[in-house]
């Protein structure tokens, strides 16, 4: 994925682009895969930077809910978007936006979360001019609502909105073709997927939408989920088609697996859903509501 700047590695080997393909699942376009990587730029970040097309990328983490928040920005115009912010860390995100000199355009969600309250509402206050964004199908309140096929643009970059229901009815995946990446929310997790037993969940829908809208992307596309509970940060279409223990099964087997997960009731769902349906602006616990006053 795109990074701003080149991080040099201490690795002394001189691999080829093919070598990196096996590490990153991605290579820059228009490169001879058998050509050696120039000395001094040996590192995943080097490749990401080379193919970045001037996009700044940060993957941020919330330790409590294991949520990933993504900051994407156009280096030239400074226009930026945040995907899936967490309210308790909205100040961290706003500070980073300020320190990088960015203009936050959209505070976006992949879906109405059940495990944490979105930071959209608080970020709108902390970064005046930013707008909340979510899918029409989510039935949530937001400044901007998007439908499948629409594009979210910032600077010279764009994210294609794809409908990936099943975890919730309103789940969407944001695909950045120029970077060969996708932000999958809870539809597809690394070697897993979101649960389907509440919020209008449907195992059948999830199986179909993940296969048709995410796993149909080219094998080298890097996938960034909304959560990871084991310390992984990203995966690829190729990996998930090969190793996902649920989605490599038949649809009937998948439905059976999802029906027998025996998961506990999400501990924050009762406070998260009412707040997230209004993009974290209202229906907040008292301590968080005070932040918005
Ligand atoms: Fe979720």
From TrEMBL:
What lineage is on file?
A: Eukaryota, Metazoa, Ecdysozoa, Arthropoda, Crustacea
A GO biological process of this protein is: glutathione metabolic process
Top-rank lineage group of the source organism: Eukaryota
| Record protein name field | Persulfide dioxygenase ETHE1, mitochondrial
Q: Note the subunit structure.
A: Homodimer. Monomer. Interacts with TST. May interact with RELA.
Describe the family membership recorded for this protein in Swiss-Prot or TrEMBL.
Answer: Belongs to the metallo-beta-lactamase superfamily. Glyoxalase II family.
Q: Where is it predominantly found?
A: mitochondrion
SMART domains registered for this protein in UniProt: Lactamase_B
Please provide, in alphabetical order, the Gene Ontology terms of the cellular component aspect for this entry.
Answer: mitochondrion
**Domain called Metallo-beta-lactamase: residue spans:** 66-227
Annotated keywords: Acetylation, Dioxygenase, Iron, Metal-binding, Mitochondrion, Oxidoreductase, Transit peptide
Organism field: Halocaridina rubra
């Amino acid at each position: 994925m795109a990074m701003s700047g080149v991080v040099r590695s201490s690795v002394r080997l001189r691999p080829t682009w093919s070598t990196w393909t096996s590490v990153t699942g991605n290579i820059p376009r228009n490169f001879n895969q058998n050509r050696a990587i120039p000395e001094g730029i040996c590192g995943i970040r080097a490749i990401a930077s080379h193919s970045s097309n001037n996009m700044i990328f940060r993957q941020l983490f919330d330790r409590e809910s294991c949520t990933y928040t993504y900051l994407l920005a156009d280096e030239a115009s400074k226009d930026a978007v945040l995907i899936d912010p967490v309210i308790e860390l909205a100040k961290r995100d706003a500070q980073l936006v300020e320190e990088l000199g960015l203009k936050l355009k959209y505070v976006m969600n992949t879906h109405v979360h059940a495990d944490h309250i979105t930071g959209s509402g608080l970020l709108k206050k902390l970064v005046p001019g930013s707008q909340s964004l979510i899918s029409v199908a989510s039935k949530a309140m937001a400044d901007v609502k998007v439908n499948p096929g629409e594009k979210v643009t910032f600077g010279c970059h764009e994210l294609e909105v794809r409908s990936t229901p099943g975890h919730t009815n309103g789940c969407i995946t944001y695909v950045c073709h120029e970077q060969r990446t996708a932000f999958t929310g809870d539809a597809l997790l690394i070697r897993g997927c979101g649960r389907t037993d509440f919020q209008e969940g449907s195992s059948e829908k999830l199986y179909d939408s993940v296969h048709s809208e995410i796993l149909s992307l080219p094998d080298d596309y890097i996938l960034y989920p909304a959560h990871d509970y084991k310390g992984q940060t990203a995966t690829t279409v190729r990996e998930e088609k090969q190793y996902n223990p649920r989605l490599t099964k038949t649809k009937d087997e998948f439905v059976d697996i999802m029906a027998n997960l025996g998961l506990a009731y999400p501990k924050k769902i009762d406070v998260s859903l009412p707040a997230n349906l209004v993009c974290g602006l209202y229906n907040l616990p008292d301590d968080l509501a005070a932040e918005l006053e």
